[in-house]
C-alpha cells in the first residue's frame, strides 16, 4: 500500500440501529388500531431489523445443464476496491450469510455502486460460452 490510510466503506450493520420502537404509526388511527399495530410489530420484531440475516424458510435448487464445472477468471479489481470486497466477504462470513467453498465453480465478482455511495458486491454468472 502506498502509505495512504484507506478507510473501508460500511457495508452492513452488525448491531441493530433501528427497532420496532422507531416505527412511526399514523396518529390518525384510533387508539385501538394503533395498539393492534404495536402488538403486531412486537410479535414480529425479528423481521423488522436493519441487520441482514439468513432465512431457512425456502430452499433454492439450481439445475445445471452441463456436468462440467464452469470456471471463469476474476475481473481485475483496483487495489482500493479489493479491500471493499474483502471486508464484504468477511462480514458475510461472520454473519453466516455465505460460507467458504473449495468447489470447482467460479464466477467473477463485480462492484455495483449504490445510490448512497457504498458498494454492493455481486457475482456475474452470465457470459459463459
Q: Specify the overall morphology.
A: elongated
Structural class: alpha+beta
Number of helices: 2
How are helices and strands ordered from N to C? HHEE
Question: How large is the share of residues in beta strands?
Answer: 5-15%
Average pLDDT confidence is 81
End-to-end Cα distance, whole Å, is: 36 Å
Number of strands: 2
Main sheet summary: 2 strands, antiparallel
Rg calc:
21 Å
List low-confidence stretches.
1-11
Tell me what you see in this structure.
The chain is of the alpha+beta class and 129 residues long. It has a domain at 79-123. The chain is built from 2 helices and 2 strands; from the N terminus they run ααββ. The chain has helices spanning 31-43, 79-95, and strands at residues 109-113, 119-123. It has a two-stranded antiparallel ribbon. β1 and β2 form a beta hairpin. The longest helix has 17 residues, at 79-95. The protein is elongated.
SSE diagram, text form:
Layout: H1 31-43, H2 79-95, E1 109-113, E2 119-123
Antiparallel strand pairs: 1-2
Quick recap:
The chain is α+β, with helices and mostly antiparallel strands.
Keywords:
alpha+beta, 129 residues, disordered N terminus
Amino acid at each position: 500500500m502506498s502509505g495512504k490510510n484507506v478507510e473501508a466503506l460500511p457495508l452492513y450493520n452488525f448491531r441493530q440501529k433501528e427497532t420496532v420502537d422507531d416505527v412511526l404509526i399514523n396518529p390518525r388511527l384510533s387508539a385501538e388500531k394503533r395498539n393492534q399495530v404495536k402488538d403486531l410489530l412486537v410479535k414480529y420484531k425479528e423481521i423488522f431489523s436493519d441487520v441482514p440475516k439468513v432465512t431457512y424458510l425456502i430452499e433454492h435448487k439450481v439445475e445445471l445443464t452441463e456436468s462440467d464445472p464452469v470456471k471463469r477468471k476474476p475481473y481485475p479489481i483496483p487495489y482500493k476496491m479489493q479491500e471493499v470486497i474483502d471486508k464484504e466477504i468477511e462480514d458475510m462470513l461472520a454473519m453466516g450469510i455465505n460460507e467458504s467453498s473449495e468447489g470447482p465453480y467460479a464466477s467473477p465478482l463485480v462492484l455495483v455502486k449504490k445510490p448512497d455511495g457504498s458498494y454492493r458486491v455481486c457475482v456475474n454468472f452470465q457470459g459463459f460460452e
